[in-house]
């Protein structure tokens, strides 16, 4: 993979002209006092009068508006540079409170004083994401469901009511419209290099944010409303994210050398890479990932356009076409229905990593959450940044010239390459279901340790002598297990206690450890997984209810606080546990085998598939009823036997048909 020598920018000529030149064509000079007062009050009229509209449909004329607003942006940039930090804080800091992140905007002011290109671009990316989040909070003062896309948010009637249509039109000149400067998208999608983003546009957005705060205050006082900020997204299970070892200083130094020679790096983007690694060293983990994600997109876009032989897609698209972004690059098919070649080049582990961290709904969706301002940057976890940086290093290595082989064999890099090559999805529905199964069986494994009264007490209850019904249920389960035995490891068979000894945590771990390709699962598979996950959730709920009830009733038994009817009910519960444990284990085994053979789903006819789905939903109904009957409020233990008997008959019939299907398919 090599970058064409003629390509020096990722901005198409019209977009490059719009961002880098158009706003500099007019040399008008404006008195800053006409734009903002001494106490920082924005004179909106002096800004909005520079908007231009098309005669045809009265929509914004973005070309003329950018051209006319250019000198205003320059005046504001110079104004900010003339202020000390103390003066800026006095005049403006109060107007940033509505964003819920005043410190960020003060930080952007500091950046503008030195106008270091990479830091200006970083500041603009952080500013736009925070501004979008705050505008979404304002939207919810009036609207219900906040638009996901910034473009739709800025075009909403709700924000026009609060701020005024002309003010929103000004904002759309800078962000949110593909016809304007579109600064947020060209940066977050990795099209603009640091040198291509004029600092004056960052200054203008800082200024506009303060002005919006002033307008919002007026609206809140007038309507007696209170702005409520939505909570940030948090990464609860960080341990699930860890795929790579912790990066140390030496590894990062090797990475800095690798960046200089890797074909994965667009040379004009080199400052972003170096700044990202520096940010990691300085424990600025949010900054690191914000800088790095767009660069991963640039590198993958280069790989995508090379492997799919569409070099024109390397540049920003025109407003009438879509950008080539992560979303398209990770799809199975191109827009023309041909197979996307990028997955075959990246290979399955790398694709699964990208899907896990960027796309899967239960994954961190790190780019979405960061770019839309949904994460608290101040508490961004090192663990997350470590995974993104480590993965990026492996791509730098993989897509380098042969003469960089020494890097791949370096003692600090080799473990990263090894981890990357064996990565398996953690957030695909299949992976989440496997996790659910193992968590559920752990819960069921606690049952034998629960305190109970002696078996003599249970046998003394009228109707439980001999446990004939329970024995019948266990016999049915043993028959079903016998059908499945040929698909289980040979060493898991015990004639004494077939279900509890065979369907162990060890067996389920072994089955769940089988690798299943999760990329591009067809819709029928995803529909089945939804039902299977619901079944597993209900099984876990039953187990937790049994544990809670058993512990509580035993304490009450020992304290002799149970009434006669409660004592009988408790003993019936203990009898029911004898068949509930194996039946839940059996269902978990069936779920696991369904996952292992999930590829067979799409080989069925539509009729077969619908019958199959109907069966699974009947099992779901059974487990839902179990949750109800085993709840502390119901305690219908006799009814669980009847329910279970009917369910086992259905399962046995299905198991017969399922095995026939598997045999015919293999």
TrEMBL record:
Superkingdom of the source species: Eukaryota
Domain DUF4209: 131-211
Pfam families noted in UniProt: DUF4209 (PF13910)
Protein name: ER membrane associated RNA degradation
Species name: Anser cygnoides
């Amino acid at each position: 993979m090599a970058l064409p020598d003629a390509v020096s920018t990722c901005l198409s000529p019209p977009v490059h002209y719009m961002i880098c030149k158009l706003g500099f064509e007019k040399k008008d000079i404006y008195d800053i006092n006409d734009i903002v007062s001494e106490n920082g009050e924005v004179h909106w009229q002096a800004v909005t009068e520079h908007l231009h509209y098309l005669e045809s449909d009265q929509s914004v004329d973005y070309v003329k508006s950018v051209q006319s607003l250019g000198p205003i942006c320059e005046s504001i940039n110079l104004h900010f540079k003339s202020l000390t930090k103390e003066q800026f804080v006095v005049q403006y800091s109060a107007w940033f409170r509505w964003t819920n992140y005043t410190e960020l905007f003060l930080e952007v002011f500091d950046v503008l004083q030195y106008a270091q290109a990479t830091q200006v671009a970083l500041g603009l990316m952080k500013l736009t994401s925070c501004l979008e989040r705050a505008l979404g909070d304002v939207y919810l003062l009036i609207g219900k469901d906040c638009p996901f896309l910034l473009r739709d948010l800025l075009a909403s009637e709700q924000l026009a009511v609060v701020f005024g249509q002309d003010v929103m039109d000004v904002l759309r000149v800078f962000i949110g419209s593909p016809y304007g400067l579109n600064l947020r998208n060209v940066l977050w999608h990795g099209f603009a290099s640091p040198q291509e983003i004029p600092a004056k546009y960052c200054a203008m957005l800082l200024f506009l944010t303060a002005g919006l705060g002033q307008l919002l205050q007026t609206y809140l006082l007038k309507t007696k409303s209170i702005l409520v900020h939505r909570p940030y997204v948090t990464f609860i299970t960080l341990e699930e994210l860890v795929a790579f070892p912790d990066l140390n200083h030496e590894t990062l130094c090797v990475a800095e050398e690798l960046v200089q020679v890797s074909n994965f790096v667009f040379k004009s983007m080199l400052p972003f890479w170096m700044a990202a690694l520096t940010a990691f060293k300085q424990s600025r983990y949010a900054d690191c990932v914000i800088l790095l994600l767009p660069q991963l997109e640039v590198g993958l876009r280069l790989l995508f356009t090379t492997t799919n032989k569409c070099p024109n897609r390397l540049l920003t698209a025109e407003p009438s076409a879509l950008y080539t972004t992560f979303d398209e690059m990770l799809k199975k098919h191109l827009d023309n229905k041909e197979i996307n070649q990028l997955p075959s080049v990246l290979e399955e582990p790398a694709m699964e990593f990208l899907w896990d961290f960027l796309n899967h709904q239960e994954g961190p969706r790190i780019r979405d959450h960061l770019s839309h301002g949904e994460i608290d940057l101040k508490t961004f976890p090192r663990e997350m940044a470590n995974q993104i940086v480590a993965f990026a290093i492996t791509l730098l290595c993989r897509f380098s010239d042969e003469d960089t082989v020494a890097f791949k064999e370096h003692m600090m890099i080799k473990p990263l390459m090894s981890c990357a090559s064996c990565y398996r999805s953690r957030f695909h529905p299949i992976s989440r279901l496997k996790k659910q199964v193992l968590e559920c069986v752990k819960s069921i494994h606690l049952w034998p340790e629960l305190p109970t009264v002696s078996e003599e007490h249970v046998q003394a209850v009228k109707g439980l002598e001999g446990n004939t019904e329970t024995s019948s249920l266990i016999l049915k389960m043993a028959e079903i297990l016998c059908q499945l035995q040929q698909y289980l490891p040979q060493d898991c068979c015990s004639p004494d206690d077939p279900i509890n000894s065979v369907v162990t945590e060890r067996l389920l771990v072994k089955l769940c450890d089988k690798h299943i390709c999760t990329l591009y699962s067809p819709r029928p598979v995803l529909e089945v997984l939804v039902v299977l996950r619901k079944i597993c959730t209900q099984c876990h709920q039953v187990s937790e209810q049994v544990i809670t009830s058993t512990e509580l009733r035993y304490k009450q038994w020992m304290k002799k606080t149970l009434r006669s009817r409660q004592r009988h009910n408790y003993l019936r519960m203990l009898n029911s546990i004898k068949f509930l444990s194996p039946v839940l284990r059996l269902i978990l085994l069936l779920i696991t085998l369904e996952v292992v053979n999930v590829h067979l789903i799409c080989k069925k006819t539509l009729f077969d598939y619908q019958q199959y789905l109907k069966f699974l939903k009947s099992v779901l109904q059974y487990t839902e009823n179990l949750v109800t009957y085993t709840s502390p409020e119901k305690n219908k233990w006799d009814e669980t036997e009847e329910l279970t008997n009917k369910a086992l008959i259905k399962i046995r019939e299905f198991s017969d048909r399922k095995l026939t299907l598997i045999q015919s398919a293999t």
